[in-house]
Design a protein that fits this description.
Blueprint (H helix, E strand, L loop, with lengths): L1 H18 L7 H6 L6 H12 L2 H15 L4 H29 L5 H8 L3 H34 L3 H48 L4 H9 L21 H13 L5 H8 L4 H26 L11 H4 L4 H6 L4 H35 L9 H27 L6 H25 L5 H20 L11 H21 L6 H8 L19
């Protein structure tokens, strides 16, 4: 039964990919869906790209075990900061300015906004390099659930996920990804609610589970019994770092911001904001809430031997075959949607921003599409190989890989991108400094973390420092470096000055 469900699921995804193929005739259609994607598809594409096996297996397990029910704050932060505020602060301006500058990727935006090809090339290289460890982490989380449900070898899981995602992305581009994300998002919404209910019922229901959690203590974490059932958990400071990285970090991730490039109109932005926020609250809030009950299964879990990534799979291992099939499809949906978003972001930026105009001087639309599709294959293959190597190496925690990737990308890009949308005083030099600091700090964390203060030796805490530092670095450097040319600023910001006529239900008239 489980196999039949999976076969049907895969057939639908691939069918949608080939159905959307007829609309993919140029780069704009392949990468952005022709900038005509409605609110539901955009909101679900944003949400499903946000949450994957990394959150469901890695983060929910690790932080639920460490912080108990208080880990739910991460899901609430994801909804309010990572979704609601991101759409309100970045959504409209990103859509307007990227269309004005005719940019389809984040590096292309930087290149056009500051009239700097080196800025475009450097940001493209950063994206390609640091999206790979994030992608590798997706395979890891999925493999544990496949092994639990089907007893399938890890390498087969990787090949299966990579090939199927590659087929529908290469065939249908962004539109196929968006439609599949909508289907996958519906599965995630229903799945997480059903799974939480089933897991808690196995421990006597919600109130009995909370009561059980209140009886648990861990002297190595806290001397207080019931701390895992408390409002802020045993370590509010480090929990705060988790909330910030997983929430504010989305503002600087190219695969997330790129969703705003493609949205259709003002109405879509308003609806998309609400839909995306509710989606994040249910899915992310549900994942972390579920993980918070992990210690109820401590008699079956050996963190020292199997790591935090084993927490959620063990919590789910005693469910019925039907529910386990739902779990596998839920996490498969989350992971494939995120993977498709990552490969489009990486392959498009490598083609448009790195190859075109630098290695190959002139590329027509057909040649660009060919290169994008080739790099999709290359990116998936590299990340799959790294996932296999990582599985046998000392880097065993999903959260560790994701923390490095998010920290470097958000630390480098969040501040320059946001300030560039709002402030004419943002300079090219401030972008370079932010890139260097964000990436440099995370590289130090990877290879020489002992040189850093103890509080930021964790990739998660270090990533938050990189992001916050960028918000300070960009305005300070901009104040003392050469300002952009006025003509360049006029071109970029004129999109905000155009008049738009709206109905009185949208804006009340000043005089009757």
């Amino acid at each position: 039964m489980k196999v039949i469900i999976l076969v049907i699921y895969f057939a639908v995804l691939i069918g949608i990919g080939f159905y959307c193929r007829k609309n993919v005739t140029d780069v704009n259609g392949f990468v952005l869906g022709g900038r005509s994607v409605g609110p539901w598809l955009t909101a679900f594409a944003y949400g499903t790209s946000y949450f994957s096996a990394v959150v469901f297996v890695g983060y929910a397990g690790q932080f639920g075990w460490k912080y108990g029910i208080a880990a739910t704050w991460a899901g609430i932060g994801n909804a309010i900061i990572g979704s609601l505020m991101a759409w309100v602060i970045l959504g409209r301006r990103t859509r307007l300015m990227t269309q004005e500058l005719n940019s389809a990727t984040m590096p292309e935006f930087f290149g056009s906004r500051f009239n700097s090809n080196p800025l475009k090339v450097i940001s493209s290289a950063i994206i390609f390099i640091f999206l790979i460890p994030y992608t590798a982490s997706l395979y890891n989380g999925l493999s544990r659930l496949f092994a639990m449900a089907f007893n399938i070898d890890y390498s087969i899981c990787i090949v299966l996920m990579a090939v199927l995602t590659g087929i529908y992305v290469i065939a249908g581009g962004y539109m196929a990804t968006a439609i599949n994300d909508f289907i996958q998002g519906l599965i995630m919404l229903v799945g997480i609610v059903v799974i939480i209910w089933a897991v808690l019922e196995s421990k006597g229901g919600l109130m009995a589970s909370l009561e059980g959690l209140s009886q648990i203590s861990d002297p190595e974490v806290s001397q207080v019994t019931g701390v895992f059932n408390s409002f802020l958990g045993p370590d509010p400071l480090n929990l705060g770092f988790v909330v910030l990285l997983t929430s504010l970090g989305t503002w600087g991730l190219p695969q997330m911001v790129q969703k705003f490039y493609a949205i259709k109109d003002e109405s879509s932005i308003k609806k998309g904001t609400i839909i995306s926020t509710i989606f994040a609250l249910v899915v992310a809030g549900g994942c972390y809430f579920l993980g918070g009950f992990g210690r109820l299964f401590s008699d079956q879990i050996d963190i020292a031997a199997n790591g935090y990534d084993s927490v959620v799979p063990i919590m789910l291992s005693n469910l019925s075959p039907g529910l386990i099939a739902l779990v596998v499809i839920l996490v498969l949906s989350a992971s494939m949607s995120t993977l498709s978003s990552l490969v489009i972001a990486s392959s498009s930026t490598l083609t448009i921003d790195f190859i075109n105009g630098n290695i190959i001087k002139e590329m027509d639309e057909r040649k660009k599409l060919i290169f994008i599709r080739i790099f999709i294959v290359v990116f998936i293959a590299i990340s799959a190989v790294i996932a296999l190597v990582q599985y046998k190496s000392s880097v065993t925690f999903i959260a560790q890989l994701m923390g490095i990737s998010w920290g470097a990308l958000a630390g480098a890009f969040l501040a320059p991108f946001m300030y560039s949308l709002y402030w004419k005083g943002t300079t090219k030099a401030s972008c370079y400094v932010s890139f260097a600091f964000g990436v440099g700090l995370m590289l130090v964390n990877m290879f020489a973390k002992g040189a850093l203060p103890a509080i930021i030796q964790s990739p998660i805490n270090c990533g938050v420092v990189a992001m916050v530092a960028g918000l300070i670095i960009v305005p300070l450097v901009s104040l003392v470096t050469k300002k952009p040319e006025e003509a360049l600023l006029t071109k970029a910001f004129r999109c905000y000055q155009r008049m738009a006529y709206v109905s009185v239900k949208t804006s009340l008239p000043e005089n009757e």
